[in-house]
Amino acid sequence: MRQAGRKLGAASGKSVHCAEPGCVVVMSSMVETKQMDRQKIVVALLSVLALVAVCAVLKAAQSVVLPLIIAWLLSYILGPVVTAMTRRRIPTGLAVTLVLLLLLGICYLGGLFLHARVMSFYAAYPQYQDRVMALFKTFTSRWDLPYDPLEGINWGPWLGERLKSTAGSLLSFTSKLIMVIIYLVFLLLGKPYFKYKLQKAFLEERASQLSAIIGSISTEIGRYLFLQLLISLVTGGCVWIALSALGVDFAITWAALAFFLNFIPTVGSLIASIPPILVALVQVEGSIQLGVMTAIALFSIQMAIGNGVTPKVMGERLNLSPVVVLISLVFWGWLWGIVGALLSVPIASTIKIVCENIEGLKPISTLMGSGKRFRKEALVQARSGSA
User: Fold this and answer.
1) Does 74 lie in the same domain as 53?
2) What angle do CA 324, 360, 58 make, to 5 degrees?
3) Which burial class, exposed, middle or buried, applies to 281 when counting CB atoms under 10 A from its CB (0-12, 13-18, 19+)?
4) What is residue 369's three-state secondary structure?
5) CB burial class (10 A; 0-12, 13-18, 19+) of residue 57?
6) Res. 175 pLDDT band, cuts 50 70 90
7) How many CB atoms lie within 10 A of CB 135?
8) Structure pTM?
9) CA–CA separation, 175 vs 165, rounded Å?
10) CA dist., res. 331 & res. 324, Å (int)
């Protein structure tokens, strides 16, 4: 026994003297525990390295991976349309072609529209720049400042060049849409047959279970993306009506900006409200009343849609924690820029839906949620228990 104890002590790196009968069992369990702890540390370190490697690959392969992500998300919106057309005995190739032609037409017209809007604002930019400089000079003289805070800042030409480059990038994004279309073609062509491939690849019970999980994931993601698109359209329409009624210049441009940035929660709607408010402040010389009314109108729209319409339409099922939204926004924005920021919430919602429909990953989905429903349930239970 003592020799066994000494061997175990040598294996663990310590000098151990054992005279009890159960000492060998105890020391053996201690060694196994230490080995398991070391394995857990190794697995954790390898997981961190794998995560860093995946981030590096996603960053380096942005030009290839990003169109694939966009095509994958679009397939959840367009896939049901293709499936419905094939059920009506329309050939799959023809159904995919018709859907893609419609998508291409919408994207092309949208790209031309955005390019024209940005260029029209760029043409009127010098006029607004002069008004901004005059407004700052008025405030500087009224406050009797010893120096001009804008003196030496040549931000006007820089901003003008940025507007021009933005218009060019919008047009280039439309021209690069061909890669998204290529990915989307293959995804849509395979969607109607995926269920049958599952039935052949797995046993009947397993295939039915996988088909139910994948169907639930596809339905929830498609529903989320469609509702988010609908809410963004309503937001852009309300912004256009409000700004047109107030007489703010480039009302339709700011409505399009609100539509796109509404996909970015909280931050996007705030950013979309800043340009029209600034334009309204300098649109009428010597008066800030239009700017104040514009700010009130835009913030009222964002509050009504963000706190009233969106929760009722989306429900509690897809609510995300603000921390998850922030982390997703920062991470994907850092990784892929403005396009990553636009896709951050759909990607986070997709991850949450996938975790929610897989039994072993449900705790992750619960932690990613806002927790409002669980708080209400806890309060109800506490009241019923006290009663």
Assistant:
1) no
2) 50
3) buried
4) strand
5) exposed
6) low
7) 15
8) 0.69
9) 15
10) 10
